[in-house]
Design a protein that fits this description.
The protein is of the alpha/beta class and 259 residues long. Helices cover 42% and strands 22% of the residues.
C-alpha cells in the first residue's frame, strides 16, 4: 500500500501541503481532486519521489522514499509517474520510445516487442508507431506518453491528468477500460488526478478532496455524496470545492442582463 504521513511542502512563499495523511490500499484507484493550486500535483510529485517534502514522508509497502540508494532504486522500478506535460524524445519513433522505457524497467525484450505492438494498437497508433514523435499530433503525443506508462507494467501508477492533452474519445475509452482492468484484475494501484466528475465517479474507488493544502474529505464517490447530503456526486463536489459557484454564475448573468 501507499502511506503518506504528515506530509508538508512549500515553495518558499507559503505552504502548499500541510500535514497530509493518506493511505491507498493495494489495487485501489484513488483520484486526487481539488481546485487549481490546491496541491494535487505537488502531492503526486512527492509520492513519485520527484519532489522531496519539507516534512513528513511517503512509504510504498513499508519502504520510505529515499531511505537508502538501493531501496530507492528498487522502489523506482515498481513505480511509474506520468506528469501532465511529459517530456518526449521527439526525434525518435514512438516504438523506439516505448522499448527504451520498458528496458529501464528490466522487462524481457520479447515481452516488450509484443506489448509495444498491443499498446500501439490500443491507442490507434499503428500507422504512427515507426514515425518520429515530432510528426505526432497533440493527442497522439498524449497517447504515446500514456503507452509509455503502461509498458512499464509497474504495480504502482501515478498519473497526473491522464485524460487531458487532446486525448480523443477513443483514447479516453481505451484508457478508462485499461485502468479499470488493471485495478480490478491485476491488483495495480493507481493514484491520479482529473477534473472531470463523471470520470471520477466511474473510475475511483476513493476520492481525496484536497482543499487549502489539506485532505478535506476521503471516501468513495457514494460516501462523499451521502456525507454532503446531495443527490449527485457533482452536486457534492460543488458544495465541497466551489460553494460560491452558484452565486458567481448568477452574478455573471445578472450583470449581463443589467440586474
Amino acid at each position: 500500500m501507499i502511506q503518506v504521513k504528515e506530509l508538508t511542502h512549500h515553495y518558499g512563499l507559503r505552504p502548499v501541503l500541510i500535514d497530509v495523511n493518506l493511505q491507498v490500499e493495494t489495487g485501489e484507484l484513488v483520484v486526487l481532486l481539488g481546485p487549481n493550486g490546491s496541491g494535487k500535483t505537488t502531492l503526486l510529485g512527492c509520492m513519485a519521489g520527484t519532489i522531496w517534502p519539507a516534512r513528513g514522508y511517503v512509504e510504498f509497502d513499508g519502504v520510505k522514499r529515499r531511505e537508502s540508494a538501493d531501496r530507492e532504486l528498487e522502489l523506482r522500478k515498481r513505480i511509474t509517474y506520468l506528469p501532465d506535460n511529459t517530456w518526449l524524445p521527439k526525434q525518435h519513433t514512438g516504438r523506439e520510445f516505448l522499448l527504451a522505457v520498458g528496458r529501464l524497467y528490466d522487462i524481457d525484450e520479447f515481452r516488450l516487442f509484443d506489448h509495444s505492438d498491443r499498446l500501439l494498437n490500443l491507442f490507434h497508433l499503428e500507422e504512427k508507431g515507426d514515425a518520429s514523435i515530432e510528426s505526432y499530433s497533440t493527442g497522439q503525443r498524449k497517447k504515446i506518453a500514456l503507452a509509455s506508462a503502461l509498458i512499464t507494467e509497474a504495480p504502482y501508477l501515478l498519473l497526473d491528468e491522464p485524460f487531458s492533452g487532446g486525448l480523443d474519445p477513443a483514447g479516453i475509452l481505451a484508457m478508462k477500460s485499461v485502468l479499470k482492468r488493471l485495478a480490478h484484475d491485476e491488483n495495480v494501484t493507481v493514484v491520479m488526478t482529473t477534473p472531470v466528475p463523471e470520470l471520477v465517479e466511474e473510475l475511483a474507488h476513493r476520492v481525496a478532496i484536497i482543499r487549502d493544502g489539506q485532505v478535506a474529505d476521503y471516501g468513495s464517490p457514494a460516501e462523499i455524496t451521502q456525507q454532503a447530503g446531495k443527490a449527485t456526486f457533482e452536486e457534492a463536489l460543488q458544495q465541497l470545492l466551489y460553494p460560491e459557484k452558484t452565486d458567481v454564475v448568477a452574478a455573471y448573468f445578472d450583470a449581463s442582463e443589467g440586474k
